Each structure stands twice: as C-alpha cells, then as structure tokens.
Amino acid sequence: MRKKEMIAMLLAGGQGSRLVPLTSDVAKPAVDFGGKYKIIDFPLSNCTNSGIDTVGILTQYRPFLLNTHIGTGSAWDLNSMHGGTAILPPYTTQEGGAWYKGTANAIYQNIQYIDRYDPDHVLILSGDHIYKMDYNKMLREHKKQGADVTIAALTVTLEEAKRFGIMNVRDDNTIYEFEEKPEKPKSNLASMGIYIFKWSELKKYLIEDEKNKESENDFGMNILPKMLDDGLKMVTHPFKGYWKDVGTINSLWEANMDLLDENNDLNLHTNNWKIYTSGEPKGAAYFGESANVENSMVVDGCEVNGSIKNTVLFPGVIIEEGAVVENSVLFPNVKIGKGVILDRVIVGENTNVLSGTHAGDTTIKVIPQNKTIK
Amino acid sequence: MAKSYMGLILAAQDTNDIMGLTKYRPIASIPFAGRYRIIDFSLTNLTRTGISNVGIVVPHNYVRSLRDHIRGGQFWDLNRKNGGIFLMHPTIDAEIGKSNVKNFRSNLEYLHKSKENNVVLCSSHLVANIDLRSIIDSHEKSGRDLTIVYKKVDKNLKGYRGCTSVILNEDKEIENFGVVVDSREETNISLEIKIIRKDLLIDLLMSGVQNGLVGDLNKFIENSVHKISTNLYEFTGYGKFIDSTKNYFKANKDILKKEIREELLLSNGGISTKINDTPPAIYKPNSKVSNSLIANGCIVKGSVKNSIIGRRVVIKKGATIENSIILQSCIIEEGVEIRNVIIDKNVTISRYQKVIGSEDFPLIIEKKSLLDG
Predict the structure, then answer these.
(1) Whole-number mean pLDDT of chain B?
(2) ipTM score of the complex?
(3) Secondary structure (3-state) at A328
C-alpha cells in the first residue's frame, strides 16, 4: 500500500440523542440537511476538496443508511485504488469484542487500518458539523509549527463555551491549557473536535490510554490533557467562517434557515468548494399555476402547487394546492395535502401530512418520518 | 434473460433541422427538460432491463460533449469489467455523416467479442420512457429473428414528418416502410427500436458492405425485412423524436403536462443521468414561478411562466421569462423580457433587453463558446 502523508478518521457513530425523533432510524451524520445533503457530506467533501484521498469512517449506531449513503465513496471521488473510504464498524477478535467505548478507543481499535497507510499524520474529524474547511491548510501549519497536535479552534460566546473543549493559548497559538467542558471557562477559544496528530505520538498514547482502566478513552477528556501534561507541542488552527453544530432540533432548523439568507456564509452556490452527496438524479422541480414561492430552497424532484415561504424542501416533496408552508424544513418525499398549514416544523422523510394546522413555537416541532397525519 | 442481450445506440443523427443547438454537440447530448440529455432516455431504457453491455455509434464530430456526459457509464451502471459502455468511433475510411453501416463494419470486432447473442438497437434522439422488458418478452415469445417497434400516431398529431412509417397489411404483417410526409391520416411510426439476433445482424452487415451498401443501419435492416421473419410490437406511450427545433421546443413543453411528466420522467423507476452536484435552487422574495420546471442551482429573483430552466441559471430582479427554454448557466439580467426563446448554455442576456420569438418559430440564441471572441 502506498505511504500517505495524512489520512482522515471520521467519527460517524453518533446516536444524536438530542435529534430524536429524526435519529430513530439513522446515525446523526446521516441526518438530512440543506435541501439535498446529509450532515456527513460536509466533512467528506472537505476531505476531497483538501486533497485527502483516504478516509476511515467509524460507524456504530444504526449504520445501514449511513453505509448505503457512503457506498464505495464514489460520490466524493473517494473510490480510489490506493485509499478511498473504508467503513470501520466495531468488531470482535479472538479475545472478544466491544463497542467503541469513546472517541479515542474508536481510533485505538483501528490502529491496524491506519498503520496500513503508514501515515505521518492523522486527521480526526467528527461527522456532525456543518462547515467548509481546508484541512490541507491546517496540515501545512501543523508541519510548519513542528507540532505534535494541532486543534482547529473557533471563537464562541462565553455562554456557549461550557459545551466545548476550551483552550488557552500563547501569542504563537501554542496551547498551555486545555479544559473539556469547563464550568467556568477562562477563554472563549473552543475546540472544533478537529485534530491533526503526529501518528507515531498518537499511537503511543492510544495504547497507553487503553491500558488505563480509569480512562474514559476520550480525546478531550483523556488524550489531549495527558499529551499537554507530558509537554508535547500543541497548537491551535484558528478557523473563521461558517460553522454550526447541528446537534439539536433547533440548531438543525437554524442552520437550514441560514441557507436562505442572501449572503449566507456557507454559500453552497459556489463552484470552488462543492459539497458532494450521493443519491439518484430526479427531474427538475415543477411549479404549478397556483404556486407561490418566497425566500425558499427547492430541489430537483419537488412539485409545488401551494405556497411556501422561508422553507427548505428536499427531493420528492409535493405541496398541494392551497397548502401554506412557512419557516419549515421538509425532508425527502414528504407530501403536504390541500389546505394544510405548517409553520416552524421539520417533517421527517416519507411522511404524508394530509390535513390540519401544525406549528412549533419557541422550539421547532418535529413530525417523525414514515407517518400519515390525518 | 437480459444477459443474452446487448444494446446498440445509434447516435450519429442528421442535425440539419436543429442546427442552432447542434453547432457544438450531437443531438444525443442536447440538454432536455432542465437537467437530462436526450441520450439519457435510450441509455436508461436499455440498462434498467439488466442490459450491461451498450455500444454507442458516435458521430464523426463533436463527440467531446457526448463523452463528457457519458464518462465511464457509471450513471447507468455501465462501469463494468465485462461489457459496460463502448463508444464506436468511425474510422478514417468510414464516410462521415449517416454511414452507420460502415462504422459498424470497422467496429465489427466489438460485436464479435460481446458475449451476448441478441442486440437491442435504438436511436439516441427518441424521447420515450419504455419498458423494454415487455418488448424482449414479445420478441422471445414470437420466436422470430427480428422485432420492430412502432407507435400509432393520430392524424392530428404533428411532429412526425420525415419519420419512417411502418405500413401493415390486413394480416397485421409488415408490407413495407415509407416516409411520413404529412399527417393526413393515422400512421404507424417506426420508433427505430429493433431487436435482432447478433449473428444475423453481422451477416447482414457483411453482405451489405460487400454489395456496396452504405447508409443508415435502420434503413438497411428495413430493406432486408422481407428476408427475415419479423415480429411487430406496438408501443402506446409517449414518444417523440428530437429531430427539429420545433419538435425540441414542443417535447420540452410537453413535460409541463402532468401526465407526460409522470410517464416520461417518473415511471419505470425514472430516467438516469450524469450527476453534477448542483445545490438546490434558491427563490428570493418577489420571485414568481408558475407552470414551469426549474433545475437545481438556479437563483430566481424574477418571474418565470410556462418555461423550462436548466441548472445554475440566474434570473435577476424584474426579469420575465415566458414560454421559453433556458439551458444551464445562463444569466438573465435585470428587467430582461424573454418570450418563445431557446437560449443555449452560458449566455448572458444584458439588462432590459427584449428577446421575443414566436410560438411556431422559437428563436434560438446560440451557446457561448470559449472559442468565440
């Protein structure tokens, strides 16, 4: 196998418990987003666009739809002879088997896969954020700094900081303190959960961590603090641009609404950093005589006869005459019947809403998938 | 069943009546219905029966556009180790134009090497969603060597002038083939879909070339029909040849009708095409769209009526588009007025221009070529 300078490991096993009921059948990375994409399309497309051609995808929870979506990786040009995608589920050995216990343990269990490519560096990614990022630029800085670890960092509000790994850095971006989800954050520089490790170092720490029965086998809780204690060189890679954790129903809805903003920072309509996805082609969207469309996103395979406003439609959505849909997100193949009124609602895949008024208030209402609502 | 069938698509059609759109491409790769290319229909019809070996007789010029669309055949599951997609290029000694027979002659090794025993022939300029399995069934049940597919066309249906008519006798057997000049009465139109035994096709080709016959393969087989036991199959669905600007305009407009859209684009599992990874279209406040098809990647701020808009078209504020076809990546600037127009790829219509054709003679605005000044 050809030696690689860097390969990516994408943690995609997340259950997404705060996205229930949208995640009752799929892992969080396979949740729909932005009219035709799934959340995992963003890190995968970032890999392709950054020139990373080998991506190990660690799956665990409800993997079927995620695995089907990834397929051979061809949608992202990641079906290469010398790398490409590999789906890495937990497995058993002669000594028995175990689910992935934590983020670090998931990588530990796949040391064999990584060693096969003999990489100098390993990029760790998670499959639940919406952003465009050039990982190659991050690698260049990592090498220039001679760092053992580089962590992508984002400035958040002090209120939000409690949910993240928070870093305190010197002027040259080197990290002198790392606190995972601190009660009282000392800064607002948050880890995005995107790391580049020198593989020789990381491998040592993963093996050591596995022997430690007290450890939670987690990068943020265990590996990073330990490396910092031992004096390894850790630096941040500051990120500016659109980034959204779509881990809750409200943030998923918000991120969809962000796309409707004329000057949204994610800008899907640019050709120089395409987001790729897999799926069958469908015919162009059809708008009937009585259609009314305002500030909305409509994708191939839709048919609109009613009114939509501030709304994102996925392929195969049908809106019948007289229906009024506002501030909503309708997943693939949803049918909205005559006269139905929706406001601030996310409707799961294949659901038929035949009648009634459905509205969320401060929280967004979710109508689960595969239902018929009369 | 389909494992013993291979497909052959004749994509070297005469382009005289559809010049504007075929300046830089064969008819096969003209964009259609917002996001397809015309050859997608033949490719999908063939491959969804399980046929996994398809040869395409390509024209002598402008193959680039067709190759760019077909790639390795992956979008039709034709990226195979056995069979797959095979582009049959005319060799230098083959006459240019419609000399399909000579082209086959120079690509005969491909036919010999293919392990299938039967060939499904079709033309790339037919827009139809056909379940070929039932035609193959009928062919096998008949036990005959050749099956010819035709469609009965009502006397009021225009748009088949120049097509081959299938003339039947009282016993519903083929008497002869003719050419449609006028649609004064009900006519049976040949859909140029034929099923034939491969060894028979090769024999016909060899003897034909030896006897100095060159020309269109369809005509060639039709001329031999009295020597071959022939089965007939009537197709009753939607089917139109894209052989003139007028027919192209009409067929696109037909897609706006619900029944035709559903039959042509959605039935039998839909039509496959190259995937372009275009984001969803965005509709701004004050946009107005009715009875129109709009593909992914568009940004719509103006109004669109009775029209078909291809991928990544930008329609700016105050622009009005009516009864028109706009192909991908065009920019329609502020205040533009467009009616009865076909605009090819990459064209920008500058502010407040009026571009108006007539319904019977739509105006064609040619593609912006990178070579043009």
Answers:
(1) 91
(2) 0.92
(3) coil
